[in-house]
Design a protein that fits this description.
Blueprint lengths: L6 E8 L4 E9 L4 E6 L8 H9 L5 E10 L4 E7 L1 H18 L7 H5 L5 E7 L3 H70 L5 H15 L2 H17 L7 H21 L3 H21 L4
Parallel strand pairs: 3-4
Antiparallel strand pairs: 1-2, 2-4, 5-6
Length: 291
């Protein structure tokens, strides 16, 4: 089954205390990589989130963003350093007595100093919040997978179209390959006639043609190309991650095509090889988008 590695999903879960939004997006990657950004108090459920994501995503770079709204998500506490206040108070009193400084120490003098009094914020653990995050994550990743499947169907259509064009060119190679040997024989005969004044050594010609025919034989490469294409098409229907296998098959097709180009010393075959390589390059680009 063709599934794209590119997608986006957004999930939302709410209660009387909290509103949670989880956004998940994925892009191409050779392996599976997940990065989750969320409030600190939720870090302990990161593994649970990754496990839930992994049930739907097998390959790709995944970015997850979790936002939480609700008064219960943060607790505030007044922190007072009484010891430091006492020292500060005694210093002010002693300085006044020692240097004759007049004036009174007001409450404002104390509370205006952040080192004496400040408000601490902390993110409290909350099972209700954690459940909402996991619920929103499930909704987001399901929507993401639906998008990846839909895009995968479009990719599959394009892949089949490209492969069909490759097969057409391979058929042209199969038809034209025998002509190469015949043309070589005709050229060789003509040259020998020019050098020996019309007297031809038929045995010598047949030997040279046989040697050329063996060197220029591309039947094995064409057979392997057809086999790779058949495996490629069959793999498109497998219900598992297929991207790496398809990428390998495209590499093998490219290798066989290069061999054909180097073995067949003929301009027509060279042009067909160029067309096939161009199509295989398109195939490679599309395959790299597949999970």
């Amino acid at each position: 089954m063709v599934i794209s590695m590119t997608g986006f999903g957004r999930g939302k879960a709410e209660s009387n205390s909290f509103s949670v939004i989880v956004e998940v997006k994925s892009v191409n990657h050779r392996f599976s990589e997940m990065n989750i950004r969320m409030p600190r108090q939720l870090l302990k459920i990161e593994d649970k989130m990754k496990k839930k994501l992994g049930q739907h995503i097998r390959r790709g770079r995944v970015e997850v963003y979790v936002s939480v709204e609700g008064a219960g998500s943060i607790t505030r506490k007044l922190h007072i350093d009484w010891n430091l206040i006492e020292e500060y108070f005694q210093f002010m009193k002693q300085a006044g007595d020692t240097y004759g400084i007049t004036g009174t120490i007001t409450l404002h003098d104390l509370i205006s100093r952040p080192d004496l009094l400040h408000i601490e914020e902390s993110e409290a653990d909350n099972e209700e919040l954690e459940d909402l995050v996991l619920k929103a994550t499930e909704e987001a990743v399901v929507l993401l997978k639906q998008m990846r499947i839909a895009e995968g169907e479009e990719l599959k259509k394009d892949l089949i179209s490209i492969i069909s064009q490759v097969e057409t060119h391979i058929f042209e190679l199969q038809k034209y390959a025998p002509v190469v040997v015949q043309l070589y024989k005709e050229r060789l005969t003509k040259r020998m006639q020019e050098f020996v004044n019309g007297q031809i050594d038929e045995t010598r010609i047949l030997t040279e043609v046989a040697v050329f025919s063996e060197k220029a034989d591309i039947n094995e490469e064409i057979t392997r190309l057809n086999s790779h294409i058949q495996q490629f098409v069959q793999t498109l229907n497998h219900h598992e991650p297929i991207g790496r296998k398809l990428d390998f098959l495209v590499q093998e097709m490219n290798r066989e095509t290069n061999t054909i180009g180097s073995k067949a010393n003929d301009s027509t075959i060279a042009l067909i090889v160029v067309e096939i390589k161009s199509l295989l390059e398109k195939l490679k680009e599309q395959v790299q988008n597949i999970e």
